[in-house]
Amino acid sequence: MHDGLVTSRALHDPNAELVPGSLVGERYVVESVIGHGTTSIVYRARALEGGGAVALKVLRASLARGTISATRLEREAEIVARLDHPSIVRLFATGWIETGQIWIALELLEGETLEALLQREAPLGLERTVRLLDDVLAGLGAAHDAQILHRDLKPANLVVVRDASGDERAKLLDFGVGRDLRDTGPRLTAPQALVGTLAYLAPEQLTPGMDPDARADLWALAVVAYRALTGRAPFGLRGARMVATIVRSDPSSPSALVPALGASVDAFFARALAKDRDARWQTAHAMRDALRALVR
């Protein structure tokens, strides 16, 4: 489950491990639980200095220092700390509490996940989809330029917020299974282990012997775009035959589902969802240019 940083749907966790008023790192005061997942709990907290609100992501006590989950959260903090881009959630600080639990303080996003938006309003229309995913591709391009793969791009990890002008913007978060290609330390997942969410995995991630690269992130974003434009996932969202469908079958042309989309959108997805990764756009920057061209 997504360890949300989003404030629009606050969650109550009866097993919250930090109570309101708890002081973390001598700099943040816990206010409430706003999200939770299998490995961590996310709290709304306030900085003692300046009073700004943050999303405080804290490893569950049962997964304290020394576990793979602790190492993964520590690496997530290291990855996000390297990325300074308006379309990527910002990291403010990180540390450990006395029980051996790592915490990271992140930008608190006032909005909702793209997943929630799609469930309520899809299809979103071409201009709105391009505007939102243009932001995401800009952030993803910055991450790839820094040699960082996200590896779990999906609507639940994209947050739609409003900027100072009231316009919708999209932000990328949750680098929990991200990979820093410069990191020569031991990998936290076995080479053939599936990383990410099946409906958004590229064929090469499902093919033994292939080492996925940044182009797998671009495939995942193409799946997100297809769903935003048509209201349907190109290969479904679940099912026993999904792996074979992703590897062997082509999805319906978007215009077959939404005729107003037209041939140019069909051509975009024919390339973006090509089984051969060499036939896709090779960089987020190139894919962003092609996406923008759809509304010119």
Topology summary:
Blueprint: E1 23-24, E2 28-36, E3 40-47, E4 53-59, H1 68-82, E5 91-96, E6 102-107, E7 111-113, H2 114-121, H3 126-145, E8 148-149, E9 158-162, E10 168-172, E11 179-180, H4 214-230, H5 242-248, H6 254-257, H7 262-272, H8 284-293
Helix pairs in contact: 3-4, 3-8
If you had to describe this structure to a student in words, what would you say it looks like?
The protein folds into two domains: 23-107, Phosphorylase Kinase, domain 1 (2-Layer Sandwich); 112-293, Transferase(Phosphotransferase) domain 1 (Transferase(Phosphotransferase), domain 1, Orthogonal Bundle), CATH 1.10.510. The strands form three sheets. It has a six-stranded antiparallel beta sheet, covered by helices on one side. It is 31% helix and 19% strand. The longest helix is centred in the middle third of the chain and has 20 residues, at 126-145. A hairpin with a 5-residue loop joins strand 9 (158-162) and strand 10 (168-172). The chain contains eight helices and eleven strands. It is an alpha+beta fold and 296 residues long.
